[in-house]
Amino acid sequence: MFTSSKAKSAVVALTILVIAGISAWVYQLANGLAVTGMSNINSWGAYIIMFMLFVGLSAGGLIVASSAHVFNIEQFKKVALPAVITSTVCICCAGLFILLDLGGIQRVWRILTGPNPSSVLVWDMTIITIYLVINILDLVLIIRGHEHKVEVLSRIALPVAILVHSVTAWIFGLQIARAWYSAIMAPIFVASAMDSGLALLIIALAALERAGIFTTGAKLFKGLSGLLAVFIAVDAFFIGCELLTMAYPGAGEAVELGHMLQGATAPFFWFEIICGLLIPFLILVFSKNREKRGLVIGASALVVLGVFAKRVWLLLTSFITPNVEGANGISLGTFAAQADAANMWAQTGSYAPTVIEILVIVGVISLGALAFIILSNKMLKRNSAEPAADTQSTTAE
User: Fold this and answer.
1) Burial 75-89 (b: 16+ CB within 10 A, else e)
2) Which pairing describes strands 330-331 and 345-346: parallel, antiparallel, or unpaired?
3) Residue 317 in contact with residue 260, Cβ under 8 Å?
4) Residues 288-340: pLDDT tens digits?
5) CA 42, CA 329: separation in Å to the nearest integer?
6) Spatial separation of the C-alpha atoms in residues 200 and 61, rounded to whole Å
7) Are the C-beta atoms of residues 121 and 88 closer than 8 Å to each other?
8) Helix, strand, or coil (residue 265)
């Protein structure tokens, strides 16, 4: 399957990183979540940040693939298979991050035996499971060439893809005691899913073409880049709406806005605004730039990194100022706090991922990359002849 020495080296390196991640996860299981940077104040951390990121990356891919069949966009149908492969891998990674964040994974079966219908987390588990099943069915039907069945399934997949990120947003947006409490949270999540998911698809298509596995064609690549510019503009608009509401005199989120603009999470906020939205849009809004693959790939990478930065400031900003005041503060519950009674209490939230968390995250991403390489080699090579012809015709034009 992997013939070149570079491909074999990449697979070996990724395998080593996966093993390192598994080892770190086993250590976490043995010692509990106290080995992470999370605490009683910051009850969520890097795992939930990556969960939000990968749900969005996945939803964006399936939205592109489903829209191609629902709206009969013939040229986008050519990238439906790599889009669904990307979507499937990303949603599996997102699910893994949730399981990692649970800590006591051996008790996960209790969610099935005693679900709480009023919990948004149960909704999220249900919709993600349905979403994964749709992805797998889509892969099977596309490979077997059942075009009509793919069209029928796409009419279900498109709203589910939008819903999967909306439900993830409601996990945050329905918490009254946090700054996330906003009706626009779901549209913001969906918009960022569309631009980050499409950006990742563009990067994946460029990598597949470089590896000689799948050829997209210059015309289609340019069309996808233009669509990404539109998605970026929509995402920026929703963020602007939210910021305007927070900045309005008398708004209850004024403290959190201060953290975002010039506090602890300001570097991530400004990175997203400048590097994740403004610069990519200024690159992709011009037609000539969309013909330069290096610029398009660079802009796409900035979009993905910008959405990652958004997940960081969105999650952690609401943990900086606890919603409990008085006495000594909140008991942290970490190993460091247990070792030093003077550091047991805190009145301000702080978080930094530990080496264990970083190793686990790298392991999951490496596992996803391995899965993408294997699935692409297995499923896409048979389709390389047809897109190659499209490239030649485009060049001739």
Assistant:
1) ebbbbbbbbbbbbbb
2) antiparallel
3) yes
4) 999 999 999 999 999 999 999 999 999 988 888 776 665 555 665 666 665 66
5) 13
6) 8
7) no
8) coil
- Produce one character per residue of 300-323: b if its CB has 16 or more CB atoms within 10 Å, e if not: bbbbbbbbbbbbbbbbbbbbbbbe
Q: Give the pair of three-digit tokens for residue 300.
A: 């796409």
Residue type present at position 274: I
> Which residue has 């993600």 as its token pair?
128
pTM for the complete prediction?
Answer: 0.87
For 148-179, letters b (16+ CB in 10 Å) and e give eebbebbeebbebbbbbbbbbbbbbbeeeebb
Tokens of 119: 């919990």
Confidence at residue 330, expressed as pLDDT on a 0 to 100 scale:
62
| Largest separation between any pair of C-alpha atoms in the chain | 75
**How far is 378 from 95, CA to CA, in rounded Å?**
23
- Calculate helix-pair angle for 254-262, 293-320, nearest 10 degrees: 140
- Separation in Å, CA 177 to CA 172, 174, 316: 10, 9, 14
> What ranges in 32-119 are assigned the alpha helix state H?
46-70, 74-77, 80-102, 110-113
Dig out the tokens for 290 from the structure.
Answer: 């969309």
Give yes or no for a contact between 34 and 334, defined as CB atoms under 8 angstroms apart: yes
